[in-house]
Model the fold of this input.
Amino acid sequence: MNTLSQTPDKNTRKYQHISREAQAQILQKMHLHSERDLAKQENISRTTLQHWKARFETLQGEDPALTQFFESPSGQAFLHTLYVATLLVFHQYGNCGIPSLEKFFSMIKTDRFVGSSIPSLQRMNKVLSRHIIAFGKEETERLASTMPHKAICCAVDENYILNDLTLVAIEPVSDFILLEELAKDRKAETWDKVCRGALVNLPITIQQFVGDEAAGLIKLATHHFKVIKGSDLFHVQQEITRGLTAPLARSLEQEKRTKDVLQKKKEESLAKFKEDLKSAKGIDELSKRGVNAGRRLCDISKQEKKNEKTIETIEHKKEEARENRQAISGAYHPFHSETGKKQEPKEVEKALESSFAALEKIADEQNLSDKQKEKLKKAKSLISSMIQVLIFFFAFLSSTIKELTLNEEEAKSFERLVSYYYWKERIRKTSGRKNKNKIRALVEQLQNELEIDFIWSQLHPERQHVWRLKALECAGIFQRSSSCVEGRNGCLSLKFHAFRHLTAEALQVLTVLHNFFSKRNDQTTAAERFFEQKPRDLLVYLLGKVELPRPRKVNPDRKRKERKKAA
Done:
C-alpha cells in the first residue's frame, strides 16, 4: 500500500498561449504529419490540435476559398491589422461608436473568424487603451533621453468640457501637448504641481507662458517659474469685438430692419394714395384719406433718407473699427510685416495706441454704454504686457547672438534668418488667401536676401545648421496667442459631444493620439516635431501587444430564435 509520501507527484497540465497566426501555421502542416507527431513536435496536446481542425472544417461553409485565406497566416495577419486599425482610427481617434463597428464587421462577414460582438470589441478597446497609454509613456521617456535641450514658450488654458476641470499646456511650435490633466481647481499651486510633474523628464526650459489674464496663470509664470507672462492677442481682439464691433453690428441690423418696416409702410400708403387718386378727378379733389396718405408718404421718405444716412454711417464706422482691430494684429510682430526688419518696441507701442485711440473715438461717437467702453479699456490695458513680451523677445535674441559670438554684421544676417523662419511659420497660422500670399511674398523676399547675403553664403554648412537651429528656437519663443489650446479644447468638445462622456483614461488616450498619431500635411507628428526624432509606429506597437479574440459558438436555441425573429 502506498502512503501519501510514496505516491508519485501528478504532473499538472501546462497551458500555453499560442497566437492565431501560429495556430494557422501549425494547421498548414497537418497534411505532412500525423496528428500525434505534429502535436508532439509543436508541444501541444492532441485534443487542442483536433479542436483547431474541427473549427476550421466548421468554418468552411459559404465560401471555402475565403475561409482558406482567413485561416491562413497571411489572412490572420490581415484580420489582425484590420481590426486593430479600425478600432484605432474610427473609435479611438474618430467618433464612431462600438455598435457601429460591430455592424460593420458583421456586414463584411469577418465576424465568423474574429470575435466582433459588442462585449468582445469593448474588451479589445480597453486593452488597446491601456497599451496606447503605455506607448505614450515609453516613447516620451525614450525620445526625451536623446533630444537636444531647448527653450520653449508654453500656451496654457483650462476647460470645463469634461465633468471635471481640465488643465492643458501645449508647446505652440510643434503643437505637442505637455500636459492634459483633470484637476480640482485652477490655482497657481495646482498649475505648478501638474506642470512640474509633466516636465520632470523633459530637457526643456520654459521661457514664457502665454494665455488669458487669469490670476492663477499670471502667478504661475511670474511667481513659480519666474518667467514672463504674455497676453493672448485672441482675447484682446475678443474684448474689442464684444465692446465695439458686435454692438455696431447689432445697431446696423436694427437700422436695416427699420428700413424694411419703412419700405412696407411706404408701399401701403402708396397703394391707398393711388386708389384715392383713381376715384378723384384731380389732386385738388382728393379725399381726406388720400391727403393723409400723401402726407405719410412724404414723412416716410424723410425717414428713409435719415435711415439710409444712419446705415451708411454705421457701416463706415464698423469698417473703420474692423480695420483698426486688424491693424493691432498686424502691428504686434517682432519683425515688420512688409520689410521683415526688426521693429522697435516703442514703434509697436505707438501703433497699438493709435489703433486703440481710433476705436475709442468710434465708441464715443456711437454713444456706447459704459459697460461696452470698459471692455475696450480692458483690451487697451494689455498693451504694456504685449510690449513687455516684445522686449523679452529681443533680449532673448540678443543673448542668443551673444552665445553664438557674432559681430555686428553677422548679427544682422542672423536677425534676417530669424525673421525668415518667423514669417514662414506665420503662413500656416494666417487665414485668407490674400494675407497668405502677402506673407509668402515677404518670405520669398527674405530668402532672396539670404541667398545674396555675403556672410550667410560664406558660412560652413555645419555652422549654417547651428544658425538655423538657433533661429528656429528664437522664432518659436515669440508667441502672441494660445490658439493651439483653444483648438484642442474644441476637439475635446466634439469628442465629448459624440460619446456623451470622457473618462480620465480616455483623455490620456486622446493625448497620446494627438502627440504620436495625428499628422500635419507634411506627414509629421507633434512628437516628431517636438523631440526632433521620429517615434515608433503606434499601429505596429499595438499589433505586437494585442491578440485577436475568437468568436464564441452561437447557442443553437438562440440562433433559432434570431432566425425566427428575423423572419
Observations:
- The beta strands are 150-159, 165-171, 176-183, 204-211, 228-231.
